[in-house]
Amino acid sequence: MKLQTSKRLALKTLKGFRDFLPEKMAIRQEVIRRLKNVFETYGFEELQTPALEYAEVLKGKYGEDAEKLMYLFKDQGDREVGLRYDLTVPFARVMASYQDLPKPFKRYQIQPAYRAENTQKGRYREFYQCDVDIVGSTSPLSDAEILGVINDALTSLEFPSFKIKVNSRQVLFTIIENAGIEKGLALSVIRSIDKLDKKSKEEVEQELKEKGLSQEKISKIFDPTLARGLDYYTGPIFETQVEEPKIGSVTGGGRYNQLLKTLGGPDLPATGTTIGLDRICDVIEELNLWNLPKTKVQVLVAVLDPKFINESLKVAQTLRERFVTVEVYPDENTKLDKQLKYADQKGVPFVLIIGEDEAKENKVTLKNMETGEQETLTLEGTLNRVKS
Amino acid sequence: MKLQTSKRLALKTLKGFRDFLPEKMAIRQEVIRRLKNVFETYGFEELQTPALEYAEVLKGKYGEDAEKLMYLFKDQGDREVGLRYDLTVPFARVMASYQDLPKPFKRYQIQPAYRAENTQKGRYREFYQCDVDIVGSTSPLSDAEILGVINDALTSLEFPSFKIKVNSRQVLFTIIENAGIEKGLALSVIRSIDKLDKKSKEEVEQELKEKGLSQEKISKIFDPTLARGLDYYTGPIFETQVEEPKIGSVTGGGRYNQLLKTLGGPDLPATGTTIGLDRICDVIEELNLWNLPKTKVQVLVAVLDPKFINESLKVAQTLRERFVTVEVYPDENTKLDKQLKYADQKGVPFVLIIGEDEAKENKVTLKNMETGEQETLTLEGTLNRVKS
Q1: CB contact at 8 A, B113 and B129
Q2: ipTM value of the model?
Q3: pLDDT tens readout for residues A87-102
Q4: DSSP H or E run through A253
Q5: B169 Cβ under 8 Å from any chain A Cβ
Q6: Chain A contact for B50, CB < 8 A?
Q7: With a threshold of 0.95, does the pTM exceed it?
Q8: Domain that includes residue B308, residue range
Q9: Across the interface, which of A63, A92, A114 has its CB nearest the CB of B1?
């Protein structure tokens, strides 16, 4: 790599893209850690696919409007390529590519997707998707496992009150049929009903009237609270509403027995859910739902006198071996005041100091940054204090 | 989303890109988990930057040859954009964007980078980079922290024998100066010396002769075993050779006090290292260095009689609450033989069965898949057996 002298960097991320600085990352890491843990407790295993796919894998799957949002371009070999638009199409490609994967196949996948969305709506152009799916079983038992995962996931994220809504495409179709509505209109009617969480009952009724339904027919079908407009569900459909804090829908999914085949993959039944990872992380951060410590560092070892750096490094190493998170202040020429301020800014709870007296007695001075108290302790005493 | 009927999916990933199926992911997850743990024990915090940056952030930083490998294109807003080429330039942009980040700033970053490399060399076009850096301190203490991280990282990855080579740009320059070689040639000479791990001593000597050095001068400088050709190091340089198994260099780094400024970022000293994550994962997989279980699932609950599905689901839930990883076979219409074969294929060590007798006695039958033994146990007994 040849070094280039360069003009000042553009200071901004690209429109619709964002940096995750450590404080923001801490929440994301913890959300992902808890979700993965639940998925794995249910026997789901992680899958990752490349950010770039052949454009032909992506195109013709989502409709024309979606295609306008796709990042499509030509690579150096003049191949038509595109950035991942969601996780479902790459997953269908994987199921098509590796036909000998043991079935039922249970995978989860947490990766960013890319859509040139209208950023005015507060949407990001790089956003994480989190999908959990079972492929190869038509049994309601696999739908039940997905519901179990959703329940345990939301519980592990400490949402005090949420409702998992379950409905069934078959039930909806039967209701519509029994109301005497012609079959060809069924999907269109479901799409209108699905707008009930955004529009008023009157508005949706008006929409149905415009679609040609009589008031009598409308009253017969006007109850189901979960319809999910997506055309590809074939059986049960599920959605989770977090009620406290009131943040709305955070998961959506259902059974999609035709989708993999329709996307060009194998003819296998499937059921699963998407979990709104970005939304969950943003809400936990904005509403300050978790009382995460500002930093994982438990002890900052301050360094003062170059003579005692060796002792300081040794103590740091010993504490690390005992699973304490220790940062050594990386500059011995900085005044103690400034080192303490650094610990305070980062939220480190303890500062450890070794000077002449401490070195002589084989002890350390430990300052509690919250109370301001200072104690001279042995290493064992330090361990006890830090861990308590 | 409107459903599109589509032709068969292209079955392949794009040239130079790869899927990570669960078995491959398990190793990557574990490597990343251990590395993150070490970084955080030293007080490094995670940073993530977007996959796409303005092209002007990327261009003019790495030289013309590198720019040919960049994925550059125009987005929907006619902006010139590009995929992340490494983690250093985005990091410099972050340091420039958020000038009030507390210093010293210690971050780690694990994200894919994109280069349209010649795939014949076995290189991937999407590959993970893993960087650990301290910005804002000129003290050797911060270099020492990086060395500590490298040592603990390689130890935690269970490499039985590795050597961290440390050298110093300053020492190299002094040696070259003392040999009577003119200053302008110094970097070029270092680049030649750095080839010693790939070329023979004779070949490198020949190269130096061609650069105009006499045999006498060559013999005076011909010792340093670590030179690192990169032009941007300004002080100590480090590299780790794993000696057992013999897989060569897995980390590289050093002090780069000018680089952030040269890249258009702030004028701050820095030191750090790259860890060759993909290489490490591939080697652990290929040489089968770790004896990771094939799956994290400990128990497969087989389902036979629809009458006892409730009991089976309850037992699964109870075991999960006790931190056992349990998969319920998601189809009650599958013969036991096939369910056992599934457990065997996935490497699940225990299969749990509840039939009429077990349900009556409030017990379960537990089959050890390795020995083939079956026992009828209480729930507590099952827990003990699985955890032992």
Answers
A1: yes
A2: 0.88
A3: 999 999 999 999 989 8
A4: strand A248-255
A5: no
A6: yes
A7: no
A8: 299-387
A9: A63
